[in-house]
Amino acid sequence: MIEMKFLFITDTHFRSNSPRSRRDDFQMSMVSKMNEIGDIISKEKIDYVLHGGDLFDRPDIPFKTASLFSKILLSYKVPIYIISGNHDSYGQNPVTIDRSILGLLASLNIVNLIDYNTVLLKEENLTVQLYGTPYRYDLDRNPLNYSFERVKDADFCIQMAHGFILRKPFLQGIDYTLVEDLKDSNADILFSGHYHSGFEKVKINKTLFYNPGSLARMSNSKTEQNRNPKVVLVEVLKLNNTVKYTIQDIYLKSAKPGEEVISRSIVDQNKMRMENLIYFKQAIHENLDLSKYNIFSILNDISPKKGFDASLISDARTRILEAAEEIGEHNV
Predict the structure, then answer these.
(1) What is the Cα–Cα distance from 155 to 242, expressed in whole angstroms?
(2) Where are the alpha helices (DSSP H) in 9-108?
């Protein structure tokens, strides 16, 4: 029997300071998690680590922070394959990765970047194909953007995608892709990141779709407060030309309970702001026919005219999503 073991993680968002939503030392919290992952790698004899994007919280993270986490990644002593997320690049454009900190780590062979390309991993007569779909601003406007060609001789295929892939419809006016839209995928497993809350495993045709959620709890929603960060262990086995796989969630013991690390006062403030926004929206709808207009289309229309920076617009959209999730509003 031949086997390969993979450990998938996503959305670590390494940064030098703590988000407003956190009451603890966020950087030290992530150091503890990454060190625990190192222990898992050793205990489970992992062959490859897979990262679903947003390694860093911004493309120009301070060198001191980059150095801290680079040393931890190097301590794993196994190859790390990663795709770029929207926070890893400038203007949410993977073409800019070469001048980002993630690009620097790739050039130093600390991580292996697989944006829009295939890597073949071989162990005797077992061949596993990895394919990476990085984030870009128009990724979820067409399901075909996730398409790729499966290598003929690949026994098994894992795709990583940093896109807004969901199991059910979400907010009106924002691009997303349903797993049903990807039912003809060439992957055996499609791991996605980007959507921090994640979603449960679902198999459609031959493809297992899974987003285990972000390793970092960045927002202050109830969902994040109740969510336990985890990593995913995948074991691919080949015996007598038959290929099988197992998949297992491993919850991180170093991740403290949400109520200890997420600030409730910020949650309540955001909830009140979002409720006021909803009331305002309802008042507009009562007086105007805006069935085809929503807060995101307003944001998209205004930003080019005002020349707002892309990162500012991205941050605004993120904050709206987090607040909407907190009060259960799914038609903003």
Answers:
(1) 9
(2) 26-44, 63-75, 101-107
Q: Are strands 207-211 and 230-239 parallel, antiparallel or unpaired?
A: unpaired
* DSSP-assigned beta bridge partners for residue 248: 233
CA 272 distance to own-chain centroid: 28
> In 3D, which of 149, 151, 174 has the Cα closest to residue 164?
174
The answer on pLDDT for 177 being more than 60 is: yes
Residues 114-147 as b/e (b if ≥16 CB within 10 A, e otherwise) read bbeebeebeeeebbbbbbbbbbbeebbeebeebe
Query: In sequence order, what are the residues at sequence separation of 6 or more whose Cβ sits closer than 8 angstroms to the Cβ of residue 54?
Result: 10, 11, 12, 13, 85, 86, 87, 88, 162, 193, 194, 214
The pLDDT of residue 120 is 98
Whether residue 138 contacts residue 169, with contact meaning beta carbons closer than 8 Å, is answered with: no
DSSP state of 180: G
Hey, what amino acid is at 146? Y
* Three-class DSSP category at 167: coil
Residues 208-234 pLDDT 10s = 999 999 999 988 888 888 899 999 999
- How is residue 278 annotated by DSSP? H
Distance CA 239, CA 229 (A): 33
Q: How many helices (H) and strands (E) does the chain have?
A: 8, 14
Q: What is the DSSP letter of 172?
A: T
> Rounded to two decimals, what is the model's pTM?
0.83
Question: Please, is 280 exposed, middle or buried when counting C-beta atoms within 10 Å of its C-beta (0-12, 13-18, 19+)?
Answer: exposed
Looking at residue 330, what is its pLDDT? 42
In the predicted model, what is the mean pLDDT of the chain?
A: 87
> What type of residue is 129?
Q
pLDDT in tens, 98-156: 999 999 999 999 999 999 999 999 999 999 999 999 999 899 999 999 999 999 999 99
| Distance in angstroms (rounded) separating the CA atoms of residues 50 and 217 | 19
Can you give the pLDDT at residue 16? 94
Plot region of 190 (φ>0 → left; ψ -120 to 50 → alpha; else → beta): beta
